[in-house]
Every structure is written in C-alpha cells, then in structure tokens.
C-alpha cells in the first residue's frame, strides 16, 4: 500500500505522480504517457500533479491536462479516489529559439486559465488548483485574490500556492484562510533553501509538496549530494531514489512528494519508497 496522508480535506497517497515529463520536450509519446499514468494508478498512486503549462513550447497548450483526462477516462479503477492537482500562472515560450517558461499572474489570465483547466480535465471543479509562480509584474496580493475568486466561482475546490516564500505564504493565508491547503515548493538533497517553508507549513497545518523531489530530470550540477543516499540504498538493496523520497517523507506527516517519470518502471520504483523505513541513525546521517 502506498503511504497515505491528509492533504487538506483529501485522504490521498503521499507519493503522487509528477506528470510534467510526460508532455514536455523529449517526452516519449502519448501512449507511453497513458501507460505510465495507468501503471502509477494500478500500483495504488492516488495523486497526479499536472499544470495548464505542461506542453511543448509552440505546441498545443494544456497537453498534460488532456493526457491526464484521457488516462483517467480509460482507467478501469475508481476515478473518484484520484486527487488531480493542476496549476495556473505559467505558459511556455521561446527565448533565442530555446523553449522557456513565462509567467502571467494577472487576475483575468488566472481566472481564464482556471476555467480552461477545468474544461480540459473534464471536471466541474478542480480538486486542487495551485497558483504556479509569482509574477513580478503583478502584486502577489492581486494574483491571490484572483485565486479566491476562482474558488468563489466554484471552478476549484481547494487552493495551493507554488514557488512561494514565507512572506507570500503568510499573505496567501490572510486572503484564502482555510481554503489554502498546500504549498508546492522545490525541495530535494540538491535544493534545501526552502526548508523554512517546509517547517512553517507543519506549524500552519498546510501540506508541503516537494517538486523535483529527486533533483529534477536533468543531471544535477553536484551529483555528490546523492552519495550518502546511495550508501544507505546499498544497505537496503533499493534504489537511491527510494531513499531520497523516504527521507523527504520522514521530514513530517505534512510532506508529500510528486516524482516525475517518463516510463512506468521509474514511477513504480518510486512508489515503493513509502514502504522503506529509515532508522533514526540513517536519517541523522542524511541530514
Ligand atoms: N511547481 C513547480 O514550479 C514545478 C516545477 C517543476 C516540477 N514540478 C512538478 O514536480 C514533478 C517532479 O519533478 P521533475 O519531474 O522535474 O523531477 P524529479 O521528480 O526530481 O525527477 C524525475 C526524474 O527522475 C527519474 N526517476 C524518477 N523516479 C525514479 C526512480 N525510482 N529511479 C530512477 N529514476 C527515477 C525519472 O526518470 P525517467 O525519466 O527515466 O522516468 C525522471 O527523469 C513534475 O513532474 C511536476 O509535476 C513542479
């Protein structure tokens, strides 16, 4: 059984599937995407993380949400058990011919994209909708007020924020109150600067969702940061990725992880991390 936790009002798996690699540049195709999502769900995963902006630059928008919808529609299991989270506030672009990410946190854009997300996911109201990333051109408060309006209009049931600082979490809590249920920030052995927000979420009763929990799908700049995890993995005869995820989950019962995968094998391995118990000595060693 994949480790379970409470994310706002939802009982769900603490390990979710990060959908991004399935529909970004270098993805392995639509069928492989469906197969990977089905494999995750078949193994008990009940949380999928996607975004309005998970598509190839220049390609059709919202491909990730379309993929999730088709995968759920063709899955024979209990659809109602699956928590689908998506995000608004980002879009894809090009800079000097290279694919890039741009932000648009204007209230009207967030509200429009939220409605488009609900439509592509085929739901009346989105389970959990994140504001993807602060837009420096728009006061944070205005973007969060738009998220409150989205909630008010019934387009989303719960709100999350992503890439948020301590100050921004405080501001969002002030506007959204208990409808703010989750903070999704980068966190992994190669990215620990968000530790303050992870700790704050524990006190504030918010879920903390680690994005790129394995350091991202590109090769890390400093691979040696994973060496202690490789040593512990050897002792347990598991992949070091399982040790990384188990170490993150051990940071608190409010912590969730959404590892990405291009193929069934990797997500199936990641989902086993919930069965791995690290000793206090091992956790102390890993930091
Ligand atoms: N909120 C945000 O701003 C934001 C930003 C970035 C990402 N995200 C979310 O976070 C999710 C995860 O991030 P990510 O995809 O960038 O990186 P990640 O989860 O840190 O790493 C994904 C990579 O790790 C590999 N992998 C996963 N499990 C493995 C295992 N058990 N053994 C060996 N290799 C394994 C995958 O390999 P294969 O490719 O071989 O399958 C993939 O290349 C995304 O999908 C997205 O949903 C959110």
UniProtKB/TrEMBL annotation:
Domain NADP-dependent oxidoreductase: 14-286
GO function term, MF aspect, one: oxidoreductase activity
Keywords of this entry: Oxidoreductase
Gene3D superfamilies on file: NADP-dependent oxidoreductase domain
Keyword Oxidoreductase: yes
Signal peptide: none
Single GO cellular component term: cytoplasm
CDD domains for this protein: AKR_AKR13B1
Alphabetical list of PANTHER family matching this protein: AFLATOXIN B1 ALDEHYDE REDUCTASE, ALDO-KETO REDUCTASE YAKC [NADP(+)]
The protein's name in its UniProt record: Aldo/keto reductase
